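subagent[fold] <- orchestrator: predict structure for attached chain, return tokens only, no commentary.
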Amino acid sequence: MHSFWKLLYDKGFIDERKYQRLTRSTQLRDEELAGFISRQLVETRQSTKAVATILKTAYQNSEVVYVKAGNVSDFRQQFKFVKCREVNDLHHAKDAYLNIVVGNCYHVKFTANPLNFITKNQDNRRYSLKPEIFYKFSIKRDGEIAWLGGEDGTMATVARTMHKNNILFTRQAVEGKGELFDQQPLKAKGGQLPLKAGLSIEKYGGYNSLTTAYFAVVKSEGKKGAVQLSIEAIPLVYAKQGEIAVQKYLTEVVQLCKPEIMLPKIKKYSLFKINGFPMHISGRTGNRMLFYGAGQLCLDEADVDYLKKALKYENDIAENELVIADKNSDDIQKQQAQKNLDYYNQKWRISRKVNMHIYDMLLAKSGNNLYKNRPASQTTDLQEQREFFEKLSLANQIHVIGEVLKLFKCASASANLKLLDKGNACGVIKVSNNILKFKQCVLINQSPTGVFEQEVDLMKL
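subagent[fold] -> orchestrator:
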């Protein structure tokens, strides 16, 4: 082995210091062991150090405990706590919880001074950072208990907590800022804002894509004097000019008759409940409002585990460009293409039976409980195309499942269902800005944590 390291040293692949460490025959010193532990505990990224400095300044009587992401990841893998980002956003809360658990264990065991841990008891030289050993026994120091070993110990508590999905989900409500509009002017008859005050957009063109500052609930007169109640997006360029400019915008640009602002400011990403489905308002397109869903998808752990493997399978297929040869390919090419796909089918244990189970489960979720009231629901299309899905190749089935998952995401993603002979941008939530068309329209003002809420029934304004 020494000759191997000597060869690397002679070729310049390792420096002299590393060569001496790799070929030494003496026992590691306490300081070296402590240094190794420190490197497992302390995060070295500059951004992390900057945040730690801010926290120390803001909370001078507190102690900042570093937690390396690798240690938390090892904990997840060892104890099979599956994380699939494509299913929902709840993994953020669970990651935060595991950071507390893991960080506290390392901190209590080694303290802020790992050298003290090594020199306090020579038996500590035989420690292990492998999760299966590290968490096998209790972790205590000076009466503080960070971990209790055994089946009924801390692991049972951690497992119960990780299996819960009753996590509060909120989104920060903000006012639009930044550029007032798209800087590239459009030609005549285009745009939403004149190039200069008084210039005709029809004749000289104008600016487009006005940034929305916030939304407002406005009462106005519709046809034949009927009362109209609508949610209107207020562009930043008018909001900056004050109430008179906003009123003028509603009258002259939106062309509302006798507009009366009933609720002057609803921030972007505020939570609504429309006809029973929770959504965050995100923007507008024409006279329709854009929303993100606010209902997190919850699945059985076995299904989440399969989905994680299935999506990795799809990535393998894409990265290695493993596709079935086309009709012009010869028999040898077709056989090799199928052989490649069969290898990955076995590697990730993909099966038609489970794919159909996942499809049917998502179809049932789409049509029941929370999601049955979701605007732009694809339940009917998914039901109609079930047999079509069943006949797809394994790779295409996985692709469709990945796209169907986007229908449940609390984000702006749309689903490409062309493989089901449907559209390539399905599920985008667009609803009329006319509140009176709904059976229910409630604005929910939330605290940052979501613990406290205040509901405003917009249909009663």
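orchestrator: received. Logging for downstream: The longest helix spans residues 91-110. The chain has a mean pLDDT of 85.
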